[in-house]
Amino acid sequence: MSITREQVLDCLKEIKDPSGKDIVEAGLVRALNVDGDAVRFVMEVASPEPYLPIKAEAEEKLAALGAAKVSIVMTAHSKPAAPPDLKPNRKPEPTGPEKIPGIDRIIAVASGKGGVGKSTVAANLACALAAEGRRVGMLDADVYGPSQPRMLGVSGRPQSPDGKLILPLRNYGVTMMSIGLMTNDDQAVVWRGPMLMGALQQMLSQVQWGALDVLIVDLPPGTGDVQMTLAQKAHLDGAIVVSTPQDVALLDARKGIDMFNQMKTPIIGMIENMSTHICSNCGFEEHVFGHGGVVAEAEKLGVPLLAEIPLHLDIRLASDGGAPIVVSKPDSAQAQAFRKVAKSLVAAGKA
Ligand SMILES: Nc1ncnc2c1ncn2[C@@H]1O[C@H](COP(=O)(O)OP(=O)(O)OP(=O)(O)O)[C@@H](O)[C@H]1O
């Protein structure tokens, strides 16, 4: 049964806090989310114990209202900020990028332009590294078009039994978390700066990644807030820049490389995607988007060219169908192109 936000609020207003005010008026109910018969909210309280009976009462009343799933997370008030320390010559607190406990390396997969196949490359690379026996994580940070859930065939909302740590999902040996799993399908999310930073920070530090050899981060295209925030919050071990051979894509890829250089993130290399088209009927090879552009660019910029991935129907069918080609057709030439990159990264101690 579907219930409305108003019904939920009316129901919660019947519950009194210790001061006698109703809990909605007292400002205890935060971040209320009503989705069909699921109700979630945060109760912001000074200390949880005295409020446990109120939480139980809310759960009972909401269940009686028809809510099949009720999740109430109790959080303590945030501590008041410490007064500024104005003593001269005080060493600044370290605020730079930090290593995330349990994660040995972080590799960002980036592109200057959208639609060049960055997510396809990231998904196949993650699966290929898992096939090499590496412990692999995938953080889909493409806030504008999160596609890893679809590509890695993962769905459902990640659970958080203790209300603090989020349990990631897993498929094909890849532990994954996506911003797409935290929002509703078909719901356009307008991410503003602070929200974006909060969500990214949460995915880095509140997801129970476990021990990982490498975390692949699928970045949104371009050079925006997410890239900056990521580089500020986490120590990035390297970036792989994906581009098609056209001049326009290359122009944007160059901007991406420049951004990583400025952020002092080492460029592991470039990947030319949709390099040549091989007809799935006759095997005829043609250069739809030109050829060799990325090789020349990589040479000019002094970064390695890691692979030239052909434009092939099987690659699209596989990743759009929820099983990347490395998993669905591991012996195909297309899958081997990705596996070669994974092997070389492992051999070079980069993944
Ligand atoms: N080498 C390839 N051969 C055939 N199809 C491909 C290839 N690479 C990617 N595609 C297809 O192109 C489309 C776009 O790819 P993908 O989503 O990976 O791009 P993207 O760069 O991550 O895009 P965005 O920046 O919008 O997230 C997808 O349908 C994908 O299956």
TrEMBL record:
Record Pfam families: FeS_assembly_P (PF01883), ParA (PF10609)
Lineage of source species: Bacteria, Pseudomonadati, Pseudomonadota, Alphaproteobacteria, Rhodobacterales
InterPro entries: FSCA_dom_sf, MIP18-like, Mrp-like_CS, Mrp/NBP35_ATP-bd, NUBPL-like, P-loop_NTPase, YlxH/NBP35
Region feature (Disordered): 79-100
Protein name in UniProt: Iron-sulfur cluster carrier protein
GO BP annotations, alphabetical order: iron-sulfur cluster assembly
Example of a GO MF term: 4 iron, 4 sulfur cluster binding
Protein family: In the N-terminal section; belongs to the MIP18 family.
CDD domains, alphabetized: Mrp_NBP35
Subunit annotation: Homodimer.
Biological role stated in the UniProt entry: Binds and transfers iron-sulfur (Fe-S) clusters to target apoproteins. Can hydrolyze ATP.
Domain of life from the UniProt record: Bacteria
Record keywords: ATP-binding, Hydrolase, Iron, Iron-sulfur, Metal-binding, Nucleotide-binding
SUPFAM superfamilies per record: Fe-S cluster assembly (FSCA) domain-like, P-loop containing nucleoside triphosphate hydrolases
Annotated MIP18 family-like domain residues: 5-70
Record has Nucleotide-binding as a keyword: yes
Binding-site list for ATP: G112, K113, G114, G115, V116, G117, K118, S119
PROSITE patterns listed in its UniProt record: MRP (PS01215)
HAMAP family attached to this UniProt entry: Mrp_NBP35 (MF_02040)
